[in-house]
Amino acid sequence: MNDVPNVVLGVGGGIAAYKACEVLRRLTESGHKVRVVPTEAALNFVGAATFEALSGQPVATGVFTDVPAVPHVKIGQTADLVVVAPATADLLARAAHGMADDLLTGTLLTARCPVLMVPAMHTEMWEHPATQANVATLRSRGVVVAEPASGRLTGKDTGKGRLPEPAEIVELARLLLAAPSALPRDLEGRRVVISAGGTREALDPVRYLGNRSSGKQGYALARVAAQRGADVTLVAGHTADLADPAGARVVRVGSALELRDAMHTESRDADVVVMAAAVADFRPVELAASKIKKGDRDPEAIRLAVNPDILVELVKARSAGQVVVGFAAETGDEAGDVLHHGRAKLARKGVDLLVVNAVGDGLAFEQEDNAGWLLTAEGDEHPIPHGSKSQLAATVWDAVVPLLGT
């Protein structure tokens, strides 16, 4: 792959085409060279001038523009990644049947790089047997067809078929550029439950005990699992205003006790349970009915109770064959380094896999990237190199899949 990745952004003719402008902006601002190839119908929603201005590249829809350069062949041949967003029902059908009647479908036939198609259409169109058959055909050929989001569609309709948010599309694109095989459909038929974000333990109506967790790693785990075919439930504490991952059901919680109840309820019939949330170790014994003023109470008189160890409880309560994954955010101290504390936590928690992250000084919390170690119950230790949180998520799911029974 080139130092500057060449990305082809295909745009289908649906109302969600306007979101392609944000996908394009995010890709170019993160250092990618992007060539936009819309369908003729897409230009009814967003004009060629907009795509040209944002990409700095010419825009054409037909195969007879700049014929000497043979663009319907060259664009696909030189691409490091093709992203189609939105991919309409019509475009999915034409791609599945190998049609090449415009520049975009010709490009799809000549591309030998990863291809990510992001559907957007009304629920009835997405669920139609013809569309599902076309999606299955494309996936069987190695195309990554993303799960659509659920939400507001055209007009007053709501349901599955909404284009995922641009930030999520770009994150999937980044993942495929870094790890082209990161999104196999190897979790189909599996139910996974993931916790994410931080908990807040109320002291009074204004203040709380909390932590710096943004929830980004847990959301990345949910995003990647959903795109690998899993039935995903995400139990989300307080996060950095993150959009719901496409294909995941989100359960909102606030405190550690609420998180505990939700995880026990949701995990009963799960194949995999992942505790990525940053749970507060303590909570105030008393909740003040009004804001505590300075001088009203001696700070040293605020009593704290120990929160339950949710991960240990989940391990004890798990059903036969259920895989449990824990996360450990650690700092070194006089007793040992990060990995030393991670090994001790693995033994104490009894999980199948433990992801150990070093935190502090701009590491892990509130960051886009992550690194660490993956420890197994058998005593194996695998370093996880620095990369996006989606890359780390893919590494975790790669380790989980062999642990699942048939």
Overall geometry comes to elongated
N-to-C terminal Cα separation, in Å?
A: 37 Å
User: Might you state the CATH topology name of the largest domain?
Assistant: Rossmann fold
| Fraction of residues in β-strands | 15-25%
Largest sheet: 8 strands, mixed
By DSSP (H or I, 4+ residues per run), the number of helices equals 13
The mean pLDDT is 92
Q: Assign the structural class, choosing from mainly alpha, mainly beta, alpha/beta, alpha+beta, or little secondary structure.
A: alpha/beta
* Level-2 CATH architecture of the largest domain: 3-Layer(aba) Sandwich
Topology summary:
Layout: E1 6-11, H1 19-29, E2 33-38, H2 48-55, H3 71-77, E3 81-87, H4 89-96, H5 103-110, E4 115-119, H6 123-127, H7 129-140, E5 144-145, E6 149-152, E7 158-162, H8 166-178, E8 191-196, E9 201-202, E10 208-209, H9 216-227, E11 231-236, E12 248-252, H10 256-266, E13 272-275, E14 282-284, E15 304-306, H11 310-317, E16 323-330, H12 338-349, E17 353-358, E18 369-376, E19 381-388, H13 389-400
Parallel strand pairs: 1-2, 1-3, 3-4, 4-5, 8-11, 8-13, 11-12, 13-16, 16-17
Antiparallel strand pairs: 6-7, 9-10, 14-15, 17-18, 18-19
GO molecular function: FMN binding; metal ion binding; phosphopantothenate--cysteine ligase activity; phosphopantothenoylcysteine decarboxylase activity
GO biological process, one term: coenzyme A biosynthetic process
GO cellular component, one term: phosphopantothenoylcysteine decarboxylase complex
